[in-house]
Amino acid sequence: MSSIKDPRRPDLIVPYQEPAGKSDNPELASTLSSTLPMAAIFMRNRYVGWAAVAFSLQSWLGESEESQKSNSSPGYFAVGMSLMSLVVTYLPLFLPPSPGLQQGSSTEAPAPVPPA
């Protein structure tokens, strides 16, 4: 080891202070409130639709003045989309599909055609 003295001056040491972070992070909540209704519509999953309603109401009621100015769409738009996803998922209960129509797409072979 060398016997060189430490060149740093103790009177110039500035202790590290963690920067103050944002108190609220609306990005995740707004992302979930806009994507969950679409996921509920595409998958026709009622539980995802109810989660979309909860997240969209939470993000709408938790909006601040800053987030209202920075967001491109208002909070009530996400609430409307989540309610629309519930309408789409519960629609087959009120308007059942016709019995002659095939539900979804299947992976099995189509039914044989009778000879003419």
Report on the architecture of this protein:
The chain is built from 4 helices and no strands. The protein has 116 residues and is mainly alpha-helical. Helix 1 packs antiparallel against helix 2 (46-61), helix 1 runs parallel beside helix 4 and helix 2 (46-61) runs antiparallel to helix 4. The N and C termini lie far apart (99 Å).
Briefly characterize the structure.
The protein is mostly helical and 116 residues long.
What is the strand and helix layout of this fold?
Blueprint: H1 26-43, H2 46-61, H3 65-70, H4 75-94
Mean pLDDT score = 83
Element-by-element helix/strand order: HHHH
Count of alpha and pi helical runs: 4
Largest sheet: none
Globular, elongated, flat, extended or rod-shaped: what is the shape? elongated
Number of strands: 0
Strand-residue proportion: under 5%
Terminal Cα span: 99 Å
In terms of per-residue confidence, which ranges show pLDDT below 50 for 5 or more consecutive residues? none
Structural class: mainly alpha
The radius of gyration is 28 Å
Percentage of residues in helical conformation: 40-55%
